[in-house]
Amino acid sequence: MSDLHEFIRHLPKAELHLHIEGSLEPEMMFDLAQRNGITLPYASVDAVRAAYNFCDLQSFLDLYYAGAAVLRTARDFHDLTAAYVQRARADNVRHAELFFDPQTHTERGVPLPDVFAGIAGALREAKAEDGFSSRLILCFLRHLPEADAFATLEAALPLRDEYADLWIGVGLDSGEVGNPPEKFAGVFARARELGLRLVAHAGEEGPPAYVRGALDTLRAERIDHGVRAEEDASLMRRLKESQTPLTVCPLSNLKLKVVDDMREHNLARLLRAGLCVTVNSDDPAYFGGYMNANFIAVAEALSLSREELVTLARNSFLAAFVSDAERQPWLDEVDAMLRR
Ligand code: ADE
Ligand code: ZN
Q1: What is the value of pTM for the model shown?
Q2: At residue 65, what are phi and psi to the nearest 5 degrees?
Q3: Which of 2, 159, 263, 287 lies at a C-alpha separation of 20 to 30 Å from 169?
Q4: Which pLDDT score is estimated for 2?
């Protein structure tokens, strides 16, 4: 293993942009399909992987929602989450904030309490096993009406006490273009009143105006992706001043053709412009790699220095929705990496 890979492997990290449904590996898709008596439209695991050739976000989402149909029971959500935690641990991820998409499941008749119970069960086991830290962020699907997002939030509220240790916020995902942040102004205002933390996907395929909308209208505290902010100089200044974190997902951007070549990715430019950039895996089973694969891809393509890799890891803990008492030991460990 090269020195660079070794350095990345040892770097403690927080993952802040991970859709748990996007960690469904084809092998598990087949296992769960069999367990639940579902016939998949693919003959083999290799045939599933061969279908992962995306031309844009929507072409991916079509497969991602179809794949999620094998998730039926609390046990399925538990096993999916436990498998993600294993992968994250192997990459020295110490803390993960997981997105989940309740509407993808409730519309198929899966009870919302089963979704919560399965995911939370695995995360609590992980915490008990080795202190693996995590939180949950409930995402609204932006291609659906705001009324559906409101109904989802109201359906989840009776579970809030039971999952107070994990469920800390709401997010906004799915097809971005044509579904601007303003469409969800009401439900984000309600979530804010309830004391939930707020994040939103913006500036992945959508224009910089969507990043502004997420900040001004939704009051998002972090922007998921945000790479298109670079097209707007005054927005860049604002993001630098506010240090609003961007949860950037390099392999996702490559697979969904947000960039044509990793050497053209703007992560290094955003970082060197002083923005609070983090590295994340988004939907690792679909995009070809978990945390460390994303770090390695940008480190190599963009010739990132060790100081820059440490800054990315540092930013991930600074941007995490945790207390300062939880954060500080991780920051100390990250800083110690430069003294190795
Ligand atoms: N849902 C899962 N992954 C997503 C992404 N990268 N953008 C928007 N919605 C998503
Ligand atoms: Zn995402």
Answers
A1: 0.98
A2: -70, -35
A3: 287
A4: 85
